[in-house]
């Protein structure tokens, strides 16, 4: 567990930040909960990290405890009003109603997390899917109107941020590109289809195709460089899937930037270079692909453990511009 009162040089730009008081953000993961308090000027005034626990009751208790801890660390006598709490959590999230379903890592089948946290804490609460929150955190400070975030975690999916807001789509599945079937005779996916992107380029797929090391990708890259054919084959499959994910996002959203994040990207710059060279290779065969400058548009998310909590804080307050969308 750590805590600190620590200024953060990154700050929100524009008028929006000044309208806000203290924004709390809590990112709930399968093993830890990360909380941040962001001040009116966009600086991180406090953060707190603790182990997460399973089940509806424990999750609510922990959210309330972390929120109160953050408020205590910021010292409310500074006179900063608390305006909101944003929560990022895995699973199927209905942000409009603050409802979470199937957060299996936390043993939650269904929970009205937003309304429950709101009544316990007495502040507006917004709940977002954790990847969407991380995307918002990763896009912060870039000053770009549209950013896509491709999460290469256990699964594979993209989140879309436009003008500082998460785009959910009509049914909440905007960006679920992991379940685009790209190989009709490919591996069976848990969604019922065959050959989904998620079956080749997600963290769990890469591990399944290279069970010889954990994490698999750095070992796979090293062995491929040594000329080991099966490593090269597994690597080509994974990198090809990632490049396809970038292309899908590129043509469907045409965002200013595409950020690769999630556990798989801890492999670091070697991974980015491989995806870039695959996209460049495809560009050499197609003027259409080349014209999109995809290798230059992709980058890796900063390895900041607090990106999800910061994004949750931003998500919690962002709907000030649209009060009808706020969970009350
Ligand atoms: Zn699928």
Attribute tags:
NagC family transcriptional regulator, Nucleotidyltransferase, domain 5, ROK, ATPase_NBD, disordered C terminus, five-stranded mixed β-sheet, alpha/beta, binds zinc ion, six-stranded mixed β-sheet, 328 residues, 22% strand
Secondary structure blueprint with pairings:
Blueprint: E1 3-4, H1 15-19, E2 22-28, E3 32-38, E4 44-51, H2 56-74, E5 82-89, E6 92-94, E7 99-103, E8 108-111, H3 113-121, E9 125-129, H4 130-139, E10 146-152, E11 156-162, E12 165-166, H5 198-201, H6 203-209, H7 216-225, H8 229-253, E13 257-261, H9 269-285, H10 287-291, H11 294-297, E14 298-300, H12 307-318
Parallel strand pairs: 2-5, 5-9, 10-13, 13-14
Antiparallel strand pairs: 1-4, 2-3, 3-4, 6-7, 7-8, 10-11, 11-12
Zinc ion is lined by residues 179, 189, 191, 193, 196, 198.
Quick overview of this protein structure:
A hairpin with a 3-residue loop joins strand 2 and strand 3 (32-38). The chain is of the alpha/beta class and 328 residues long. It folds into two domains: 3-136 and 305-325, Nucleotidyltransferase, domain 5; 145-255 and 263-300, 2-Layer Sandwich (Nucleotidyltransferase, domain 5), CATH 3.30.420.
Describe the fold and architecture.
This is NagC family transcriptional regulator. Belongs to the ROK (NagC/XylR) family. InterPro entries: ATPase_NBD, ROK. This protein has 328 residues and is an alpha/beta fold. It has 2 domains: 3-136 and 305-325, 2-Layer Sandwich (Nucleotidyltransferase, domain 5); 145-255 and 263-300, 2-Layer Sandwich (Nucleotidyltransferase, domain 5), CATH 3.30.420.40. 39% of the residues lie in helices and 22% in strands. The protein has helices spanning 15-19, 56-74, 113-121, 130-139, 198-201, 203-209, 216-225, 229-253, 269-285, 287-291, 294-297, 307-318, and strands at 3-4, 22-28, 32-38, 44-51, 82-89, 92-94, 99-103, 108-111, 125-129, 146-152, 156-162, 165-166, 257-261, 298-300. Residues 1-18 and 320-328 have low confidence and may be disordered. The structure holds zinc ion. Residues 179, 189, 191, 193, 196, 198 line the site of zinc ion.
